[in-house]
Design a protein that fits this description.
Order of helices and strands: HHHHHH
Structural class: mainly alpha
Radius of gyration: 16 Å
CATH architecture: Up-down Bundle
Length: 174
């Protein structure tokens, strides 16, 4: 059930990006920066929950990686927008992501033990697949600034590794 709900969050990301692209109104660089930063913050928050709730060493190691990597990319993103004197722009996509992620966080918070570990890992697989797809198909192609595009491309490579790691982790949990 959690996986289905998170899929809805990410479908909203893709749908809104896809609709904008189809209508010729691609997201702006400030909107892209905000969406990317928000997606990173959502994963950091989920990882911190996993570190609080899980006793599984593999889940905890994965969660530590998520906190480290997403924090590093978000710091680079903040430094870039400051350098470019661009203010990240809140938008319907980032608002929707935050709202639905809060609902998922509440549901994950109610789980414990192996049930939590499995739900967290499954959600990480779905989350990274969708975010990676949004980066590759919408956000990177829509970015106008070369430095932003490069940062998103670097993030995509890191997050594709996260997706593979999450799949391996989920495959070991029952």
């Amino acid at each position: 059930m959690l996986l289905v709900r998170l899929g809805g969050v990410l479908a909203a990301l893709l749908l809104s990006s896809g609709i904008a692209a189809a209508q010729g109104a691609k997201p702006t660089d400030p909107q892209i920066a905000h969406i990317a930063y928000t997606a990173g913050e959502i994963d950091i928050r989920a990882a911190k929950l996993a570190l609080k709730k899980s006793k599984n060493k593999d889940v905890r190691a994965f969660a530590n990686d998520m906190v480290r990597d997403h924090t590093a990319v978000n710091k680079q993103a903040l430094a870039l927008v400051k350098k470019l004197k661009v203010k990240p722009e809140n938008n319907d996509t980032s608002k929707s992501l935050l709202k639905q992620a809060s609902e998922e966080h509440a549901k994950l918070s109610k789980l414990n033990g192996a049930a939590f570990d499995k739900a967290y890992a499954d959600n990480e697989v779905a989350y990274h697949k969708t975010v990676d797809g949004a980066l590759q198909d919408t956000l990177i192609p829509s970015a106008s600034n070369g430095e932003l595009k490069d940062l998103l491309s670097t993030g995509l490579k890191i997050f594709q590794g996260h997706e593979q790691h999450a799949e391996q982790l989920a495959g070991t949990l029952k």
